[in-house]
Design brief:
Blueprint: E1 32-38, E2 46-53, H1 77-91, E3 98-99, E4 109-112, E5 125-128, E6 134-139, E7 143-149, E8 154-160, H2 162-167, H3 169-179, E9 186-189, H4 202-211, E10 216-218, E11 224-226, H5 228-238, E12 243-245, H6 259-262, E13 268-276
Parallel strand pairs: 3-6, 4-5, 9-12
Antiparallel strand pairs: 1-2, 2-13, 5-8, 6-13, 7-8, 7-9, 10-11
Bound molecules: zinc ion.
Length: about 280
């Protein structure tokens, strides 16, 4: 990051002033909206890094302007791949060790054991035991969930929209992680559209509330709405998984992509990686 650039604050201030020294500058803005390193547990030479990208740097054009990481949303494929390369560099992994998903609002889980070549896996959750393999979930209103258990050497990324939360993808992934040996899971729930901004027909509210009562919400105008993230948090809490809920509503925060706000648009990512050893010495957060 050069001296003329502007760092957003922790909550992703939308300040994107041009670089006074160099004019329009692709380095303006940080890659991450939120990022944290989870310190090693006692006796473990292993850390977990988790984060959520922001719209950030002055890349892309039109409705995808910013750091769009989503394919199949109408953006230029080369630009998307360049953005994914940038994210891999910022995390400090090779591009083929940054694994995305072809998400389908289902409950399929894919387990990855190393570099992934070719087509991205079709799934709404991905799990790995391999160090230095970063798992990414793409969202533009849905809930990105990152799970980790450094002692068991496991991390996971989950995509949970209304359908996925209702279908129980979160408890399904928790069950699979425990089958793989997880005993001390923690979760990070990323920014998503809030309940006040997610008005839906009443029958959909009832279906979601049957899966997690906390998802029942009211919109800004008092109409039926769903708070998918609240439902996810209820599912995690009922399974005794400690969690951190990163604040922010995608529809209200211009640093985040939101389909509800903008229609066709890009996707930001939740990303998690476990490192065997000291954390990556990130230079641009
Ligand atoms: Zn909102």
């Amino acid at each position: 990051m050069h001296p003329g650039a502007v760092w957003p604050d922790r909550h992703g201030s939308p300040v994107r002033s041009g670089c006074r020294r160099f004019g329009r500058c692709r380095y303006v803005g940080a890659v991450f909206h939120w990022r944290r390193t989870f310190a090693p547990a006692d006796g473990l030479d292993s850390v977990v890094e988790a984060g959520f990208t922001g719209r950030s740097s002055a890349r892309g054009i039109g409705p995808w302007s910013g750091l769009n990481l989503g394919g199949h949303v109408g953006d230029d494929a080369e630009q998307v791949e360049a953005n994914r390369m940038l994210l891999a560099r910022r995390i400090g992994v090779a591009r083929d060790r940054l694994v995305f998903m072809n998400q389908a609002h289902g409950t399929s889980i894919v387990e990855v054991d190393g570099a992934w070549g070719g087509e991205v896996p079709s799934a709404d959750a991905v799990i790995t035991r391999a160090p230095d393999v970063a798992l990414a979930v793409l969202v533009a209103d849905c809930v990105p969930i990152l799970l980790h258990d450094a002692r068991a050497g496991l991390v996971a990324a989950i995509h949970a929209g209304r359908l996925g939360m209702t279908a129980g993808i979160v408890p399904r992934v928790l069950e699979r992680l425990r089958e793989l040996g997880a005993r001390q899971l923690s979760a990070v729930v990323g920014p998503s559209v809030c309940g006040r901004c997610y008005e839906v027909p009443a029958p959909l509210v009832e279906a979601a509330a049957a899966a997690a009562a906390s998802s029942r919400a009211r919109s800004w105008t008092g109409t039926p709405a769903i708070d998918v993230a609240a439902g996810v948090v209820e599912q995690l809490a009922s399974d005794r998984v400690p969690l951190e809920w990163v604040p922010g509503c995608t529809r209200e925060d211009p640093d985040l992509y939101s389909y509800r706000r903008d229609g066709p648009t890009g996707r930001f990512a939740g990303v998690i990686v476990r490192r065997a050893g000291r954390p990556h010495d990130a230079v641009d957060r």
